[in-house]
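ASSEMBLY PREDICTION REQUEST
Request ID: AP-0331
Submitted by: J.K., bench scientist
Number of chains: two
Total residues: 728
Priority: normal
Notes: Please return the full assembly, not individual chains.
Input sequences:
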Amino acid sequence: MRITDLLKKSGIALGVKVANKSEAIDKLISLHEKCGNLKDVKAYKEGILNREKLGTTAVGMEVAIPHAKSDAVKAPALTAITVPDGVDYDSPDGQPCKLLFMIAATTDGDVHLEVLARLMQLLMHEDFTAQLKAAKTPEEFISIIDAKETEKFPDEPKAEVPAKKGYRVLAITACPTGIAHTYMAAESLQKAGDSLNIPIKVETNGSGGAKNVLTEEEIANCDGIIIAADITINLARFDGKPVLQCAVSDGIHKPEELINKIVNKEVPVYHHKGGSADAPKKRGGAYGHLMNGVSHMLPFVVAGGIFIAIAFLIDIACGVNAQEVGSAFGTVTPVAAWFKTLGGVAFNLMVPILSGFIAMSIADRPGLLVGLVGGFMATSGATFADPGAANTVPSGFLGGLLAGFVGGYLMLAIEKMCDKMPKALEGIKPVLIYPLLGLGGILVVMCAVNPFMGMINSGMSNGLNAIAANPAMMVPLCALLAGMMAIDMGGPFNKAAYAFATLNLANADDQAYIIMAAVMIGGMVPPIAIALSNTFFKNRWTDEERKNAPVNYVMGLSFITEGAIPYAAGHPLQVIPSCIVGSAVAGALSALFGCKLMAPHGGIFVFATMQGTWYFYLLALAIGAVVSMLMLALLKRPLKK
Amino acid sequence: MVSKKLVLTNAQGFHMRPASVFATAMGKYSCDVTIKFNGNQYNAKSLLNIIAACIKCGSEIEVICDGADENEALAEATQLIESGLGE
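STATUS: Completed
Returned structure:
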């Protein structure tokens, strides 16, 4: 037991003025009370006064150590005051006391005696007591004690006190988006550690990256690690230490319980299996992996999407005619082109990041390569016949989800197979064998899957052409096209619908313009529906999801459907059907109202080209988005608080 | 020089009050009084020294007196410790 374990900053008062012994005692007791060390202040004070009756607790050298061992004490603790003017404490040498410590001891154990002994050993050094009396701040006071204690007792048993300023308990907090809960849990654990007098350090894996990162030395010296996270954390560095895994909400609501479990050694030692098949049994399973991907993807979507919207805004502000420039809209003026192209870089990384971090969550570090490459192939659509993806159809974010999960489990399988390899190859496994086999595996899988995307795509195109041949089918066709825009938000369905509309645009007739309008509205509904749902049905979404939602209004109005992807990827079964229905309704209404659009892109920025039908268009958009929002509210139940 | 091995019997060990009783009692003698405990020697006339030794109940200590009145000092030390230092 170290003195610094028992003495808190809030238990120290420096430069106190007291008139007599009884005031000094009251001051020290009030510090104990402030720190929450006492169950019964009155009983404790009685114990202190009874002890003083038996003889003064002044020990000479201007020091007094009043103390009581009592049932009124919650946990052993110390308080201290310095009295520069001195106070008469019936000292044996007749000197007034200037440095006073008060010990609160519980009736069980020898803490009382040990603390007393330790204090005495330190106090025998006059330079030490002089330093304490001169201390300006409680921090300085504690660091003087800490330094002396470390000098005096260099080889403390490690289990009890790790190293100088060592942390007994370490923790990592993380939540899917890393904006609120991560930091709430960290603060709550830190506070609990302080009040239990257990040094604790908390690493936050928030959206800004890992802060307050645990060092190898700290990990080696701690009693155990608390992982309060709703996403998977790489645990390789905690091999051989007790690791307690729990939800981030446990970190917020019951930090004391978690810390006590570690301190009381109730937590089993974690053995890292190098990512073997039984390692990733973490909270949430597939959902945890998914959220790990989604939370890493979010910033790419938000930042990239806003850059692209800015590009549209610049072009329109510069008087670009959206109808004439067609798909070049957003890149006509050099400044717009800069925003659109470079915003697009972040945007195009979205799916690789999603699958990369899903795979990394499943298979730790070796999974990143397979997931990233697989995700990239999902966006490019590479096949065996066309590896350069010159003429292919991307599989979009649904293909990215597939790549993430397949890649992750593929890597686990590869690692398992490699278990039987000779020990001599152990060193080159993570640097050569895993990446090589993993890369080969994911390339084969994605090249095998992607052609089906092409087939779906061309099948859809043929079907659409057949339907379009019948003018009476106009409204159903528009509903279908708009719905397809919302299915995969960038995959084969979306691309088929969009390509159909833009190719038709070359005909330059009313039918083509009506179809274009329906397709664009189908791509605008999902982000707006998501944003509306987050605004009006707050209890369906987490804090993090809500904080990122407003930007979806901007993206929806700019026809950047991808804004909805993080939400669709996180809750595909609820979000995708709702978006399809809402988009289809909007598409059908747009066709019924006879809305005509001559520009292939641009969202609200190209409404000016709509030959006066834009107000109906806006109405169709609003109805579609509201339908989508209501359906989402039905499908997605409120979160449990 | 005389010495004697003794077992501390008072429940809370050599905490402040018994230590002060013992140190005050030993202070009367002119001989050196030392407590040997756990391989270390402590000046038994100093309250700080005794407490710093952290001697718990049931510990065996050796009291060493060396000087003119060593026998008397050792006798009183023995009597004090065996009686539980007034507790």
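REVIEWER COMMENTS: The longest strand of chain B covers residues 60-66.
SIGN-OFF: pending second reviewer
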